[in-house]
Fold each of these.
Amino acid sequence: AQSVTQLDSQVPVFEEAPVELRCNYSSSVSVYLFWYVQYPNQGLQLLLKYLSGSTLVKGINGFEAEFNKSQTSFHLRKPSVHISDTAEYFCAVILTGGGNKLTFGTGTQLKVEL
Amino acid sequence: DGGITQSPKYLFRKEGQNVTLSCEQNLNHDAMYWYRQDPGQGLRLIYYSQIVNDFQKGDIAEGYSVSREKKESFPLTVTSAQKNPTAFYLCASSLSGTGVRSNYGYTFGSGTRLTVV
C-alpha cells in the first residue's frame, strides 16, 4: 500500500522569506509525485509533478520540488514567498503501472505574514 | 475553455434526505473521480470511474452512490445512509490508461460544500 505523509499541518512564514513544505511517501513500487495548491473554497490546482528524468522539478508561481528516492521525499520549496501564496498545499502520489488513482497527504496550510 | 463544472457550490440537506451533486467535464477525459475533504484529513476517494457505465468504490464509498451514463457526467448521490455527510466534495477527471500519458495529473472542479441542517 502507498501512503503520503505531510508532517507539518501548518507553516507560518514572513513575506519574502524562503519556505519548504515537507512530503514523504512510502511505496513498494515506483511512484509519480505531485503537488497541488488549494485556495479557500476552491478546487485543487496542479503546481508541479515528477514523472521521470531530472529530480529537480520546477512548477508554477516560482515553486520547485526535488525528488529524493533514497529518502522517499518530495519536498516543495520557494525561495521568496508572497502574501498570495497563502493557501493549503497537498502532496500526492500515483503508483507507476497501477492505473491512475491519486493518494493525497493531509495537507499543509501555508500562512504568509507581513 | 475546457474544464470541470460542479454544481451547486453550496448545498443544504435535511436529515434523512438524499441529495445529488453534479459534475460535468468537457475535457474529453475518460476517468472521473469523487473526493471528500474534511479539515485535517486531506482528500479521501469516494468513487471513481475509468470508463462509461463502469465505476469502482474508493476508500470511503459507504453511504454514497454514483452513475456514469455519459462520458461527460459523473453525479454523486449522498444517501441518508451517510451518517456524517457535512464536508467539501471535489470532483476530478484525468486521461485514463497506464503509463506517462495517464499521469499528467488530475483536473479538479471548484467543489460543492454540503451541510446537514
Amino acid sequence: ETGVTQSPTHLIKTRGQQVTLRCSSQSGHNTVSWYQQALGQGPQFIFQYYREEENGRGNFPPRFSGLQFPNYSSELNVNALELDDSALYLCASSSIDTSSYEQYFGPGTRLTVT
Amino acid sequence: DAKTTQPPSMDCAEGRAANLPCNHSTISGNEYVYWYRQIHSQGPQYIIHGLKNNETNEMASLIITEDRKSSTLILPHATLRDTAVYYCIVGGSNDYKLSFGAGTTVTVRA
C-alpha cells in the first residue's frame, strides 16, 4: 500500500509569484484535503476535493485553488504569493465512500516566500 | 474556531502511562472525538476516534466521559518516539474538515 506523497519537499518563491504543489493520494482513496500549517500552529483546512470537484472550503481567498485528477492525485495552486503564505502545506487523503474516519497525511511541502 | 481545549504541554516518563486530557463541552450528539498526533517535521497521524464508548487500539485508549464533555487519550507505555504534538478534534462522521487547535506538546523523557 503506497502512502500519501507530496512534491516538492521544499520550495522558495518570491512575493507575487505563483506556485503549484502536488499530492498523490494513498491507493484506494478518492478524497483529498489540503491544509496550511504556519510555524507553531495547528494545520488549517484550505479545501477538499472529491470526484474532481471542490467539496468544501475553509477561510482562504480565491487565489488558493486546486485540482483533483481522475487518478485522485491533486494540485494546490497559490497565485500572487504573500509573505504570510510561508508555511508547511499538507495534503491528506481518505475514502469518503467507506466513511473512513482516518485521514492519511503526507509529509508536507515547506514553502518559503521571500 | 477549535471546539476543544487542551493543555499546551505535558511531560511524561518513558515507560509510564501518558494521560492527555481534552475538554469539548459544546460537542453535539452526532459528533465524534478524534485524536491525531504530529511528530516533528512529519504530517499528522491518526490515532483513534470515539463517539460514546471507550475505545482501544494498538496505539492508545480513548476514555470519553458519560456526558461526553471531556475525554482522555491514554498512551499506556510511553516511549521516546511518542514525543509529539497531540491534537484532540471534534467533528461529524463525514466531516472531512479537521479543525486543529494548538494541541498538547507531549515530551517523553528517559
